[in-house]
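Troubleshooting entry. The earlier prediction with pyridoxal-5'-phosphate gave an output that would not parse, so I re-checked the input for stray whitespace and re-submitted. Clean input:
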Amino acid sequence: MSTSFLNSSVQQLSKSLLWEFFDLASNIPGVISLSVGEPDFETPWHIREEGIYAIEKGRTYYTASRGLKKLRQGVCDYYGRRLNTSGYTEENCLITVGGSEAIDLSCRVTLTPGDEVIVLNPGYVAYTPAVLLAGGVPVYLHLNEEDGFKVTPAALKAVITDKTKMIILNYPNNPTGGVMTHEDYEKILPILKEHHILVIADEIYAELTYADRVCSLAEFNDIHDQLIIVNGFSKAYSMTGWRLGYALAPAEIITAMNNIHQYTIMSPSTITQFAGIEAIGTSGDRDIEKHRESFRNRRNYVTAQLNKMGLHTPMPQGAFYVFPSIASTGLSSYEFCVRLLKEQKVAVVPGNAFGEYGEGYVRISYAYSMEALKESLNRISEFVKQFD
Ligand SMILES: Cc1ncc(COP(=O)(O)O)c(C=O)c1O
């Protein structure tokens, strides 16, 4: 008889290599970390001010569980204004505790045990646990550097079975920096429609696109009935600690998500929601642009330096990560990261922390000051010299 009180779904969750690595790095003094996916800017002052003002005014009550109406409307207006979409109203929007809650709820309200879910690999670490906890079965779609880490029609067709219920897309992509353009989406949409596959599009890095323009899957009106958009305030507005995100989806799905959310969360922090209204309005647009330009400069610098030292690094088109190949060193991803940590005190993340197809790569976040980036790249260069 099992002595554990833990249920079988929870027992399937293994400790992420990412956290294991963070633990290791935190025990070594003097480490420069390029491992965390968090903008280094403070939340813009006009947004913080709205949070402070909400406290001053005593706006400290629960809100409607779906979130403040003005914020939900603000999200719909924002998607129309900046992401070329139409047709979303407040009925299609749920305000959540970060994009993280929206990912979890999306899986919980749609999956029936045994449903297969296509998950990008390498991919963001929260998707597999969300699928498993909802009883789903992850099926991995291998993202290739040769394809720009995009989902191609051939790779998609290869993983569809008669049990496929859903796919979780994430562009701009964590950890690879890959981006899907309008034309890329056009190629896979007929397949998703033909097989009636529900799509979660995690667009949390949408505003950090360095290509010609940001592309949201929601631009395509004819996919709206099988699309759940996940997004949030953490990356675009530098608001990670405020814990604010949202889902945009057909009203039936939003209502079901809210049925869980109202019992488990009640409502996201009211103070945070008032700050969110300020962020998502037009005055937040210039913050986004300022942050993006700063990240663009760092991306150009980091990519050039890594290539110069002999680590082949594709130019990322979005998010704030580079994904260099470490094949030239002959080390595994894990060995590279542990040795770099011990020998040069720089923390970067093994590519296989994002799935088996991330092996041979490491993820470096450039959401750090230029000073930290310069120093750590010098150290990485010293480290890789020994493998020449
Ligand atoms: C791809 C992706 N989705 C979702 C999240 C979660 O963000 P939030 O802070 O909104 O919960 C992250 C955070 O790193 C992420 O990288």
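This one parsed fine. The first strand starts at residue 32 and ends at 33.
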